[in-house]
Amino acid sequence: MTKKKATKKKVTKSTAKKKKTSKKKTTRTTSTHKLKPGMVFEYDPAPESSAVVSIKKKYELFIDGAWVAPESGKYLNNENPATEESLGKFAIGNEKDIDKAVKAARKAYEGEWGKMSGKDRGKYLFRIARILQERAREFAVLETLDGGKPIKESRDVDIPLAAAHFFYNAGWADKLEYVYPGKDVKSIGVCGQIIPWNFPLLMAAWKIAPALACGNTVVLKPAEQTPLTALLLAEVCQEAGLPKGVVNIVTGEGPTGAALVDHKDVNKVAFTGSTDIGKLIAKNIGHTNKKLTLELGGKSANIIFADAAIDQAIEGIINGIYFNQGHVCCAGSRLLVEESVHDIVVKKLKKRMSSLRVGDPMDKNTDIGAINHKEQLVKIKEMVAQAKKGGADFHQADVKVPRKGYYHAPCFFDNCSTSDMIVRDEVFGPVLSIMTFRTPEEAIVKANDTQYGLAAGIWSEKGSKVHQVAGGLKAGVIWANTYNKFDPTSPFGGYKESGFGREGGRHGLLPYLEVK
Ligand code: ADP
Q1: Pocket of ligand 1, candidates 95, 98, 146, 194: which has the most ligand atoms within 8 Å of its Cβ, to mutate?
Q2: 295 an active-site residue?
Q3: Which partner from 269, 283, 409, 459 sits 20 to 30 angstroms from 305, CA to CA?
Q4: pLDDT one-digit tens code per residue, 173-230
Q5: pTM reported for the whole predicted model
Q6: How many structural domains does the chain have?
Q7: DSSP symbols for 349-416
Q8: CATH number of residue 384's parent domain
């Protein structure tokens, strides 16, 4: 009897399994996904879980190793640009908070940190790097929620690179005598560092890691649009046991940054942001003996020669301008194509753009996420509308864009001329302008015809041509047959109105050292 029952049960189970399988098959064959011409299949959503982070209702300032309320008692709402939902409030620091932070940094500099050997300082940097790696998922999710960039970018680019900068600079901490061989070097003191919203944690790492490796202390002002990962980095500093006051993080808006720049006891200012604010800062501290480095805007040329591997170059164009929604100072926003391959390049580019997935940045399949904040989206739309009136050929990828949140489909203007506004002004969005050239000399002249000089890309199979063109370009970073590749060992910085000073590599340490 019992045996019979058991058999019956077995039969029922296997039938159920069969039923389940056949149901699955039916669902697949009756898929309602509409396939675009040329597309083999549509992607199902693959969302990253946000359960790994807990967003606080309120974030305080990180001063002297502790979380403190702002003197003003004021907080600002932080928004997720992909959903327009709140990500809690963060404190607005004023002059008094900045003064407290600078005093804490001075005390740490005069005290334990300033006296510590390079070898021991390096150990703290290694610790921070390791914790960043251990908590990488948390950082990636937070970066994407806060800034709207695709999770695959924060996960595979921003966070690993931030950790790599701490690792790299940790290695320098006890070898500073080799930065300027044959000369004695020493730290500078308190560094005031101001960063933008496009690579929040990475910019914090670019600034903090070399400063600490050289024996300085820091007051960092994150961008008001993206404070969360810098505040989590403060937690990491606590976890690493970094002596209090070595790193202070004061959130706020422009006036908070201005108070930091103006503070009398700051020895060095490092700023990454817009050219207008950079110029203002340079003017404001020109009469002081503060050291200054500026990493500002760009309108970088991506140059495609007829002998380039065109399919790879298409990927380079996509990566150059649409990576991180075009929110990259060194974005390849001016495409220069050799005339004979212009049509094929544009044709292939259009095809590739139509397969880009724009949408939820937390989806692992997403190529282009949300524009960082509403004002930026408005600015991009205004510039695009103005450029459309100019007569260049406009093309926008026919891709679906979510209704809620701040999104902009990738687009380009073709047949532009060097005097067009869209060729001259930085858009900081997924908007490309295209021009042609006939000779390498013409490519160089057109590429240099800008007030900026941050980066450039050259695509050619001929090494000698790459070297010849690179030699003529006035740009701080030049990529050959690739674009937007970053490495902590490689210096980054600009010519002309793109700023001065370098970050990364041995060069990146120089602004944080005094030569005796
Ligand atoms: P964007 O236009 O890309 O937001 P900004 O240059 O305005 O670039 O901002 C970059 C950083 O500079 C942010 O952290 C911002 O708060 C800060 N900032 C803005 N105005 C000033 C200022 N007058 N002095 C110092 N920092 C400022």
Answers
A1: 194
A2: yes
A3: 409
A4: 999 999 988 889 999 999 999 999 999 999 999 999 999 999 999 999 999 999 999 9
A5: 0.92
A6: 2
A7: HHHHHHT--BS-TTBTT-SB---SSHHHHHHHHHHHHHHHHTTPEEEE------SSS-----EEEES-
A8: 3.40.309.10
